[in-house]
Amino acid sequence: MTTHGGFEPVFCTIVPPHVLDKLAQAEDPALAGPARRTLQRDAYERTQRRLTTVVGAPAVDAVGDGKPRRTIHDARNGTDLPGRKVRGEGEEPGEDATVNRAYAGLGATFELLLKAYGRDSIDGSGLPLDATVHYDREYNNAFWNGEQMVFGDGDGEIFLDFTLPVDVIGHELVHGVTQYTANLTYFGQPGALNESVSDVFGSLIKQYTLGQTAAEADWLIGAGLLAPRVTGVALRSMKKPGTAYDDDVLGKDPQPATMDDFVRTGRDNGGVHINSGIPNHAFYLAAAALGGYAWERAGQVWYDVLTSGELKEQAMFVDFATLTVKAARERYGDGDELEAVSKAWEQVGVRTL
């Protein structure tokens, strides 16, 4: 495990604070209320994450035999974690579809990491995968807290059940992979890279599960999560950043696709969920240029960088881009892969050294 100066897991949510902030200002209390409560709960969990980082998380036994160890808990609309155990590894599906989706999503993530990259669970050593569903009431988020996954049911007005999109499950678990590898700082460009890596592999998990090529994939993050009343298709689009939603309540998707529109802000940890659109788009462009299954060549290059030990905690876009070019050359030589990766970063306005 490479942690580059300190094991510092962070609290990461799938719905960005700027989206909940906008929703919390809605005139309709049925929309504003759940958003405000979600922001309050997120603030509490974020504080708990910091405290755990200081005092240390409980030790977890990892076997490392290439087999998943999943446990799903039910918070029963409370906030005590992990809640009541409702399904363990190898147990048959029950009547609760949310439990079954969470179990399947953990498995899909484990399978891609193992079969595509030879990684045994998110830590590389067989770490058990734990999740809690039905967290709180009308909770509009899902998060990785450094130890486990947690899923809200949504408010039914703006957001639906957070286990519905498998890429949401994958996205949050991959924050764990980053935690155990590059440990990217969760602020500014390093934080945007942290978010982008989770979007990249979350999308790849979805594509792997569906057997889709790069051309067949929709490249949306969180498709199926927005309720019917919302004018939008997902939380984010890697193919066309800034086009995922344009809604009278949520506002317009603020993600830029290139450095020309890089957003400078002190909110959202320096715009980590916003400027992640730039490296997201670079990955899409590289994968689209290469064709075939995106988790194979483009995904392999990104995985090589994440786990190389060369990606620093404070890495900027230029650092990450330069390492992807290096990784493409080292693994594939001076061929299509190198050209696709180099051109992708050039198209989004990120230079390579």
Written description of the protein model:
The chain is an alpha+beta fold and 353 residues long. The chain contains 10 helices and 10 strands. A 6-stranded mixed beta sheet has the order 1-5-6-4-2-3, with helices on one face. α9 (317-332) runs antiparallel to α10. The longest helix has 27 residues, at 29-55. The two termini are 27 Å apart. The model is unreliable at 1-7 and 53-57 (pLDDT under 50).
Helix/strand-derived class?
alpha+beta
Which bin fits the share of residues in helices? 40-55%
Instruction: Determine the strand fraction and express it as a percent band.
Output: 5-15%
Got a strand count? Answer: 10
Radius of gyration: 19 Å
Unreliable segments of 5+ consecutive residues:
1-7, 53-57
Shape call: globular
Count of discrete alpha- or pi-helical segments spanning 4 or more residues: 10
End-to-end C-alpha gap: 27 Å
Which series of helices and strands comes N to C? EHHEEHEEEHHEEEEHHHHH
Strands in their spatial order, largest beta sheet: 1-5-6-4-2-3
What's the story with the biggest beta sheet? 6 strands, mixed
- The whole-number mean of residue pLDDT values reads 93
